[in-house]
Known about the structure:
It is a single chain. The strands form three sheets. Strands 1-2-3-9-8 form a five-stranded antiparallel β-sheet. The chain has a four-stranded antiparallel β-sheet with strand order 7-6-10-11, with no helix packed on it. The chain is α+β, with helices and mostly antiparallel strands. Residues 2-8 and 11-15 have low confidence and may be disordered. It contains seven helices and eleven strands. It has two domains: 2-52; 62-247, no CATH class.
Amino acid sequence: MLIDILNQSSLKFIKRNHLMKHIHYRYIAIIVFMQCILFLPACKVAQWGETVFRQANKVSDSYAATMRPFIRTAVVYDQFASVADFSALFLTDEARMIYLDYFFHRTFKTQEEQDIARQRLLTENDYYITFYVVGYQPPVIYTTGRSLFFGEYEAQGPLLGGPEAVWKLSLIVDGKEYTPSDIRLVEMPVEYRHFFGIHWSQFKSSYKVRFDRRDEHNKEILTSNPHRVSLKFSSTIYDVTLEWLDMVYRFPE
Length: 253
């Protein structure tokens, strides 16, 4: 009886040992297989990836990089709450030419058509000082401390342009302030959206803001010399300014 029990125990031990060896060998095989995949020559893996996942050719970021000096941005806070968000692109002669270089990279035009487009934008700068402005404000504000408990709020008007706009806009050049000739809500061209980068989204409003290039005395406000230029945004409660230092608006004559 005792011998039978010992024989059965030995048999179970042998079977269990055989099973563990079998599992051990299977894991060794899997590990070897994974190592073969992971440590294949990098060129083979890259070739396989390019064959299966065809890669797009990326456009150089140089266009957006050269446009960055013309963009300013600011976020207005009241304690920890965001009140408004403004970004502006100053459309100097140089900025307009960067835009056209990028546009012609994407859209074929003959040399004659390119020359006409460049001259048209430069001519616009003869008469106007122009900005693209991207902005956002919450649709409602909570004006009192009771709002948290009673849900009281006030709906806000449009961001810019028009008598009911929450924010008014003015241009300051070398310390002198000017009012805009027109502010238009626009659908911004995709090239300018690319230039704004993370500062543009579908939740923000886009405006084209223009100021007369000559003052009431018919003197040029901006010339081919460096100027200190600011855009001032003012609400009934807050002020915020975007500033460009030593900015040249026109190409030298």
